[in-house]
Design a protein that fits this description.
The protein contains four helices and no strands. The protein is mainly α. It is globular, with a radius of gyration of 14 Å.
């Protein structure tokens, strides 16, 4: 089972960084609608088969996030 709420994590990190969905879309070279689908959970960004395989092997999947060190 996936232990994270990826959509909430993304929304929280965007607020913390002060970046809008539009800015992120432009910087990544993707459409705003694609970013919106991800943040609303309508677009899968983690492969379901991978999660199911890990569950079959007896694992839960938990993502961790680490802030990059500023240079």
């Amino acid at each position: 089972m996936l232990q994270n709420n990826i959509e909430l994590d993304l929304k929280t990190r965007m607020i913390e960084s002060g970046k809008s969905q539009t800015e992120i879309a432009e910087n990544l070279g993707v459409t705003l609608s694609y970013i919106n689908r991800i943040t609303k959970g309508r677009e899968q960004i983690l492969n379901k088969t991978f999660v199911k395989m890990m569950e079959e092997l007896g694992y839960d999947v938990r993502l961790t996030y680490e802030k990059k060190e500023e240079k």
